[in-house]
């Protein structure tokens, strides 16, 4: 039986204070093992952070239920401690970094478009027969 749950891809943007970049990177090399476990337990997977010029931070993860993942982390003592320690690194952020980040709108995903294109070809072949 095939699962009908479609993973949600979440991408977000934050701004790190430029003077704190080295420390921010050091704090993620490595992340606390108990925080890693909480991220995984929340249902987030394929989680990555990318650092751009001037402290621009782009994050990405996949989840089957982002609202449930956010609720889980909001109630986690470990995540609360981690986010409290991380909050000082960010510019112009109101609230916890894990919940106040600016989400980005996905406009293209290769697999989705290939699947749609394949389905359209199959539909056209079925109609032509």
TrEMBL record:
<protein>
    <submittedName>
        <fullName>L-rhamnose mutarotase</fullName>
    </submittedName>
</protein>
<dbReference type="GO" id="GO:0019301">
    <property type="term" value="P:rhamnose catabolic process"/>
</dbReference>
<dbReference type="InterPro" id="IPR011008">
    <property type="entry name" value="Dimeric_a/b-barrel"/>
</dbReference>
<dbReference type="InterPro" id="IPR008000">
    <property type="entry name" value="Rham/fucose_mutarotase"/>
</dbReference>
<dbReference type="Pfam" id="PF05336">
    <property type="entry name" value="rhaM"/>
</dbReference>
<dbReference type="GO" id="GO:0016857">
    <property type="term" value="F:racemase and epimerase activity, acting on carbohydrates and derivatives"/>
</dbReference>
């Amino acid at each position: 039986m095939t699962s009908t749950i479609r993973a949600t891809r979440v991408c977000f943007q934050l701004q790190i204070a430029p003077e704190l970049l080295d420390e921010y990177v050091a704090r993620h090399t490595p992340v606390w093992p108990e925080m890693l476990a909480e991220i995984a337990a929340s249902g987030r997977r394929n989680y990555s952070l990318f650092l751009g010029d001037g402290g621009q931070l782009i994050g990405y993860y996949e989840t089957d239920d982002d609202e449930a993942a956010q609720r889980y982390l909001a109630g986690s003592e470990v995540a609360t401690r981690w986010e409290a320690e991380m909050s000082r690194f960010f510019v112009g952020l109101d609230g916890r970094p894990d919940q106040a980040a600016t989400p980005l709108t996905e406009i293209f995903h290769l697999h989705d478009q290939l699947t749609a294109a394949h389905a359209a070809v199959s539909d056209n072949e079925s109609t032509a027969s």
